[in-house]
């Protein structure tokens, strides 16, 4: 699509909207990352891959072959919960 031209204006605080025909043409979703640069008196905006922290964390966790917590860690966690519940009960919060 060589004739992809549109006009627009910025909003308060310098916000601008990328027109739907551009988003559709480039396959941009609702939330996408971009890099903005300038070159030869022009502003250049290029879409970037959005880095997903969730995906990276899930991938890292999936690679772990051994238990993350030992039985001792789990028992300490359970004891901490019991202590917490006792304190809450003493304060009248249940």
From TrEMBL:
What's an example of a GO molecular-function annotation for this chain?
DNA binding
Quote the InterPro entries the UniProt record gives: SpoVT-AbrB_dom, SpoVT-AbrB_sf
SpoVT-AbrB domain residues are 5-50
Taxonomically, the superkingdom here is Bacteria
The record's keywords, sorted A to Z, are: DNA-binding
The protein here is known as SpoVT-AbrB domain-containing protein
Species of origin reads Candidatus Collierbacteria bacterium CG09_land_8_20_14_0_10_46_12
Task: Provide the taxonomic classification.
Answer: Bacteria, Candidatus Collieribacteriota
């Amino acid at each position: 699509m060589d004739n992809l031209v549109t006009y627009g204006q910025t909003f308060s605080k310098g916000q601008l909207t990328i027109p739907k025909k551009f988003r559709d043409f480039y396959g941009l979703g609702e939330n996408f990352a971009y890099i903005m640069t300038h070159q030869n008196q022009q502003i250049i905006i290029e879409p970037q891959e959005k880095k997903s922290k969730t995906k990276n964390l899930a991938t890292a966790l999936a690679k772990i072959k051994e238990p993350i917590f030992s039985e001792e860690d789990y028992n300490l966690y359970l004891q901490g919960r019991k202590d917490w519940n006792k304190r809450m009960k003493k304060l009248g919060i249940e």
